[in-house]
Amino acid sequence: MYREIEIFRAVMLSGSTSRAAEKLDISQPAVSQAIRKLEENAGLKLFARMRGRLMPTQEATALMVDVDQHFTGMEAIAHRLRSLSELGLGRLAVAAYPAVGNLFMPRAIASFDVEKRNIQISLKVLSSRDVYQQVMAGQVDFGLMADEIPPGGLENSPFLQAEGVVVMAKNHPLARRQIIHPADLAQTDFLALSPEDSSQQQLNRLMEHHGLSLQVRIETPYSLTICEMARLGLGVGLVNPIVAYDFMDTDLVIRPFSSAINFAGLMIFRLGKPLSENAREFMRALRIQLDKDMRTIRTHMQKTSRNNN
Question: What is the model's pTM?
Protein backbone atom coordinates (compact mmCIF):
# COMPACT_ATOMS: atom_id res chain seq x y z
CA MET A 1 0.00 0.00 0.00
CA TYR A 2 3.02 2.28 0.49
CA ARG A 3 3.40 2.81 -3.26
CA GLU A 4 -0.26 3.70 -3.64
CA ILE A 5 0.00 6.24 -0.80
CA GLU A 6 3.09 7.74 -2.44
CA ILE A 7 1.16 8.12 -5.70
CA PHE A 8 -1.84 9.57 -3.81
CA ARG A 9 0.44 12.22 -2.30
CA ALA A 10 1.92 13.06 -5.70
CA VAL A 11 -1.59 13.59 -7.12
CA MET A 12 -2.58 15.78 -4.16
CA LEU A 13 0.54 17.91 -4.47
CA SER A 14 0.57 18.24 -8.25
CA GLY A 15 -3.19 18.59 -8.77
CA SER A 16 -3.51 16.11 -11.63
CA THR A 17 -2.72 12.53 -12.59
CA SER A 18 -0.66 13.62 -15.58
CA ARG A 19 1.67 15.81 -13.53
CA ALA A 20 1.90 13.15 -10.83
CA ALA A 21 2.84 10.57 -13.48
CA GLU A 22 5.52 12.89 -14.83
CA LYS A 23 6.92 13.53 -11.38
CA LEU A 24 7.05 9.82 -10.50
CA ASP A 25 8.21 8.81 -14.00
CA ILE A 26 5.34 6.38 -14.52
CA SER A 27 2.38 6.29 -16.90
CA GLN A 28 -0.87 8.16 -16.27
CA PRO A 29 -2.92 4.91 -16.34
CA ALA A 30 -0.62 3.52 -13.62
CA VAL A 31 -1.45 6.55 -11.46
CA SER A 32 -5.18 6.12 -11.97
CA GLN A 33 -4.94 2.38 -11.25
CA ALA A 34 -3.04 3.04 -8.00
CA ILE A 35 -5.65 5.56 -6.83
CA ARG A 36 -8.48 3.08 -7.55
CA LYS A 37 -6.65 0.34 -5.67
CA LEU A 38 -6.10 2.62 -2.66
CA GLU A 39 -9.79 3.57 -2.62
CA GLU A 40 -10.82 -0.10 -2.77
CA ASN A 41 -8.46 -1.12 0.04
CA ALA A 42 -9.50 1.79 2.25
CA GLY A 43 -13.21 1.57 1.47
CA LEU A 44 -13.24 5.32 0.85
CA LYS A 45 -13.88 7.58 -2.09
CA LEU A 46 -10.83 9.80 -2.22
CA PHE A 47 -11.44 11.58 -5.51
CA ALA A 48 -14.47 12.70 -7.49
CA ARG A 49 -13.97 12.36 -11.22
CA MET A 50 -15.14 15.47 -13.01
CA ARG A 51 -14.51 16.04 -16.74
CA GLY A 52 -11.50 13.76 -16.72
CA ARG A 53 -9.96 15.29 -13.62
CA LEU A 54 -9.65 13.97 -10.09
CA MET A 55 -11.05 16.29 -7.43
CA PRO A 56 -10.05 15.42 -3.82
CA THR A 57 -12.87 14.66 -1.41
CA GLN A 58 -12.95 15.75 2.24
CA GLU A 59 -11.63 12.31 3.16
CA ALA A 60 -8.66 12.78 0.85
CA THR A 61 -7.87 16.17 2.36
CA ALA A 62 -8.01 14.71 5.88
CA LEU A 63 -5.83 11.75 4.87
CA MET A 64 -3.30 14.06 3.26
CA VAL A 65 -2.52 15.68 6.63
CA ASP A 66 -1.24 12.39 8.06
CA VAL A 67 0.41 11.34 4.82
CA ASP A 68 2.29 14.61 4.51
CA GLN A 69 3.55 14.40 8.11
CA HIS A 70 4.83 10.89 7.42
CA PHE A 71 6.63 11.83 4.22
CA THR A 72 8.04 15.01 5.77
CA GLY A 73 9.54 12.84 8.50
CA MET A 74 10.95 10.42 5.94
CA GLU A 75 12.46 13.30 3.97
CA ALA A 76 14.08 14.61 7.15
CA ILE A 77 15.61 11.19 7.76
CA ALA A 78 16.87 11.05 4.18
CA HIS A 79 18.37 14.53 4.59
CA ARG A 80 20.03 13.42 7.83
CA LEU A 81 21.53 10.39 6.12
CA ARG A 82 22.88 12.54 3.29
CA SER A 83 24.33 14.99 5.81
CA LEU A 84 26.09 12.24 7.70
CA SER A 85 27.53 10.92 4.46
CA GLU A 86 28.65 14.35 3.25
CA LEU A 87 30.01 15.52 6.60
CA GLY A 88 32.05 12.43 7.35
CA LEU A 89 32.06 12.14 11.14
CA GLY A 90 28.69 13.87 11.39
CA ARG A 91 27.10 16.66 13.33
CA LEU A 92 27.51 18.00 16.86
CA ALA A 93 24.82 20.06 18.58
CA VAL A 94 25.61 22.14 21.69
CA ALA A 95 23.61 24.64 23.74
CA ALA A 96 25.36 27.20 25.95
CA TYR A 97 24.33 30.04 28.23
CA PRO A 98 25.33 33.54 27.06
CA ALA A 99 28.35 34.02 29.37
CA VAL A 100 30.22 31.30 27.47
CA GLY A 101 28.09 31.01 24.34
CA ASN A 102 28.53 34.47 22.83
CA LEU A 103 32.32 34.84 22.68
CA PHE A 104 34.09 31.94 24.40
CA MET A 105 32.38 29.22 22.33
CA PRO A 106 33.29 30.71 18.93
CA ARG A 107 36.90 30.94 20.14
CA ALA A 108 36.83 27.31 21.29
CA ILE A 109 35.23 26.15 18.04
CA ALA A 110 37.98 27.92 16.08
CA SER A 111 40.64 26.08 18.06
CA PHE A 112 38.79 22.78 17.54
CA ASP A 113 39.36 23.03 13.76
CA VAL A 114 36.00 21.76 12.54
CA GLU A 115 37.07 21.89 8.90
CA LYS A 116 39.94 19.49 9.45
CA ARG A 117 37.72 17.18 11.51
CA ASN A 118 35.05 17.35 8.78
CA ILE A 119 32.13 17.90 11.14
CA GLN A 120 29.27 20.38 11.44
CA ILE A 121 28.55 22.12 14.75
CA SER A 122 25.19 23.57 15.72
CA LEU A 123 25.61 26.13 18.53
CA LYS A 124 22.54 27.44 20.36
CA VAL A 125 23.07 30.38 22.73
CA LEU A 126 20.17 30.25 25.20
CA SER A 127 19.23 31.00 28.77
CA SER A 128 20.37 28.40 31.30
CA ARG A 129 16.79 27.22 31.70
CA ASP A 130 16.44 26.72 27.95
CA VAL A 131 19.81 24.95 27.79
CA TYR A 132 18.55 22.54 30.45
CA GLN A 133 15.34 21.90 28.52
CA GLN A 134 17.21 21.34 25.24
CA VAL A 135 19.43 18.70 26.86
CA MET A 136 16.48 17.03 28.63
CA ALA A 137 14.61 16.82 25.32
CA GLY A 138 17.63 15.34 23.54
CA GLN A 139 17.80 18.27 21.11
CA VAL A 140 21.55 18.74 21.71
CA ASP A 141 24.46 16.45 22.57
CA PHE A 142 25.35 18.40 25.70
CA GLY A 143 24.94 21.83 27.23
CA LEU A 144 26.66 24.46 29.33
CA MET A 145 24.57 26.34 31.88
CA ALA A 146 25.00 28.53 34.95
CA ASP A 147 24.61 26.95 38.36
CA GLU A 148 21.43 28.79 39.39
CA ILE A 149 19.30 26.15 37.61
CA PRO A 150 19.28 22.73 39.39
CA PRO A 151 20.43 20.06 36.87
CA GLY A 152 18.01 17.42 38.17
CA GLY A 153 17.58 14.40 35.94
CA LEU A 154 20.81 15.03 34.04
CA GLU A 155 24.43 14.03 34.37
CA ASN A 156 26.57 17.05 35.17
CA SER A 157 30.12 18.04 35.92
CA PRO A 158 31.68 21.37 36.95
CA PHE A 159 32.92 23.42 34.03
CA LEU A 160 33.57 27.02 35.02
CA GLN A 161 34.67 27.90 38.56
CA ALA A 162 36.01 31.45 38.61
CA GLU A 163 36.09 34.52 40.83
CA GLY A 164 34.40 37.61 39.48
CA VAL A 165 36.39 40.63 38.35
CA VAL A 166 35.53 44.32 38.51
CA VAL A 167 35.33 46.29 35.27
CA MET A 168 35.29 50.05 34.63
CA ALA A 169 36.30 52.69 32.12
CA LYS A 170 39.98 53.64 32.02
CA ASN A 171 39.22 57.16 33.28
CA HIS A 172 37.17 55.96 36.26
CA PRO A 173 38.67 56.88 39.68
CA LEU A 174 38.77 53.20 40.73
CA ALA A 175 40.95 52.36 37.75
CA ARG A 176 43.94 53.63 39.72
CA ARG A 177 43.53 50.89 42.33
CA GLN A 178 45.17 47.46 42.17
CA ILE A 179 42.35 45.69 44.00
CA ILE A 180 38.74 46.76 44.39
CA HIS A 181 37.02 46.44 47.80
CA PRO A 182 33.32 46.33 48.78
CA ALA A 183 33.53 49.91 50.14
CA ASP A 184 34.72 51.04 46.70
CA LEU A 185 31.64 49.60 45.02
CA ALA A 186 29.35 51.35 47.49
CA GLN A 187 30.69 54.75 46.44
CA THR A 188 29.99 54.60 42.70
CA ASP A 189 27.24 53.86 40.19
CA PHE A 190 26.96 50.10 39.94
CA LEU A 191 26.03 47.96 36.93
CA ALA A 192 24.33 44.89 38.39
CA LEU A 193 23.47 41.45 37.13
CA SER A 194 19.88 40.30 37.52
CA PRO A 195 18.67 39.59 41.09
CA GLU A 196 18.27 35.86 40.34
CA ASP A 197 21.92 35.56 39.29
CA SER A 198 23.75 33.54 41.97
CA SER A 199 26.87 35.73 41.72
CA GLN A 200 24.82 38.89 42.21
CA GLN A 201 23.17 37.30 45.23
CA GLN A 202 26.61 36.54 46.70
CA LEU A 203 27.67 40.14 46.19
CA ASN A 204 24.48 41.49 47.78
CA ARG A 205 25.03 39.31 50.87
CA LEU A 206 28.65 40.44 51.10
CA MET A 207 27.67 44.10 50.95
CA GLU A 208 25.03 43.59 53.65
CA HIS A 209 27.62 41.82 55.83
CA HIS A 210 29.81 44.94 55.64
CA GLY A 211 26.85 47.22 56.28
CA LEU A 212 27.07 48.58 52.75
CA SER A 213 24.73 48.80 49.77
CA LEU A 214 25.17 49.08 46.03
CA GLN A 215 24.04 52.14 44.11
CA VAL A 216 22.53 50.15 41.25
CA ARG A 217 22.25 52.37 38.20
CA ILE A 218 21.55 49.72 35.54
CA GLU A 219 20.57 46.06 35.80
CA THR A 220 21.02 43.42 33.08
CA PRO A 221 21.28 39.60 32.87
CA TYR A 222 24.53 39.64 30.89
CA SER A 223 28.17 40.18 31.87
CA LEU A 224 28.86 41.06 28.23
CA THR A 225 26.46 44.00 28.42
CA ILE A 226 27.95 45.17 31.70
CA CYS A 227 31.46 45.14 30.21
CA GLU A 228 30.37 47.32 27.31
CA MET A 229 28.43 49.73 29.53
CA ALA A 230 31.37 49.99 31.92
CA ARG A 231 33.69 50.68 28.98
CA LEU A 232 31.38 53.54 27.98
CA GLY A 233 31.63 55.05 31.46
CA LEU A 234 28.14 54.18 32.72
CA GLY A 235 29.40 52.67 35.96
CA VAL A 236 31.33 49.81 37.53
CA GLY A 237 30.35 46.15 37.43
CA LEU A 238 31.42 42.75 38.69
CA VAL A 239 31.44 40.18 35.90
CA ASN A 240 32.40 36.70 34.84
CA PRO A 241 36.13 36.81 33.95
CA ILE A 242 35.66 34.62 30.86
CA VAL A 243 33.50 37.42 29.44
CA ALA A 244 35.97 40.15 30.44
CA TYR A 245 38.62 38.20 28.50
CA ASP A 246 37.33 39.59 25.22
CA PHE A 247 37.73 43.18 26.45
CA MET A 248 41.42 42.91 27.36
CA ASP A 249 42.54 44.76 24.24
CA THR A 250 40.02 47.58 24.68
CA ASP A 251 40.01 50.60 26.98
CA LEU A 252 38.10 48.62 29.63
CA VAL A 253 40.00 48.26 32.90
CA ILE A 254 39.76 44.85 34.62
CA ARG A 255 40.66 44.54 38.30
CA PRO A 256 40.48 41.72 40.88
CA PHE A 257 37.93 41.95 43.69
CA SER A 258 39.09 41.59 47.30
CA SER A 259 36.40 39.02 48.14
CA ALA A 260 35.65 35.84 46.22
CA ILE A 261 32.39 36.16 44.30
CA ASN A 262 32.11 32.92 42.37
CA PHE A 263 30.81 32.41 38.85
CA ALA A 264 30.03 28.75 38.21
CA GLY A 265 28.98 26.86 35.13
CA LEU A 266 28.01 23.23 34.60
CA MET A 267 28.44 20.85 31.70
CA ILE A 268 25.25 18.78 31.38
CA PHE A 269 24.24 15.76 29.33
CA ARG A 270 21.53 13.09 29.36
CA LEU A 271 21.55 10.13 31.72
CA GLY A 272 22.37 6.83 30.10
CA LYS A 273 22.98 8.28 26.65
CA PRO A 274 26.52 7.59 25.40
CA LEU A 275 28.26 10.64 24.00
CA SER A 276 29.74 10.52 20.53
CA GLU A 277 33.48 10.71 20.07
CA ASN A 278 32.98 14.19 18.58
CA ALA A 279 31.18 15.34 21.73
CA ARG A 280 33.84 13.92 24.05
CA GLU A 281 36.65 15.50 22.06
CA PHE A 282 34.88 18.85 21.97
CA MET A 283 34.29 18.74 25.72
CA ARG A 284 38.03 18.23 26.22
CA ALA A 285 38.75 21.10 23.83
CA LEU A 286 36.42 23.38 25.80
CA ARG A 287 38.20 22.64 29.07
CA ILE A 288 41.60 23.23 27.49
CA GLN A 289 40.45 26.55 26.00
CA LEU A 290 38.91 27.63 29.30
CA ASP A 291 42.11 26.91 31.23
CA LYS A 292 44.15 28.81 28.65
CA ASP A 293 41.81 31.83 28.71
CA MET A 294 41.70 32.01 32.50
CA ARG A 295 45.49 31.98 32.73
CA THR A 296 45.65 34.72 30.10
CA ILE A 297 43.25 37.05 31.91
CA ARG A 298 44.99 36.53 35.25
CA THR A 299 48.30 37.48 33.63
CA HIS A 300 46.64 40.50 32.01
CA MET A 301 45.29 41.78 35.34
CA GLN A 302 48.66 41.37 37.04
CA LYS A 303 50.45 43.18 34.23
CA THR A 304 48.03 46.10 33.94
CA SER A 305 47.87 46.51 37.72
CA ARG A 306 51.70 46.78 37.90
CA ASN A 307 51.80 49.23 34.98
CA ASN A 308 49.29 51.43 36.77
CA ASN A 309 51.61 51.94 39.72
Answer: 0.69
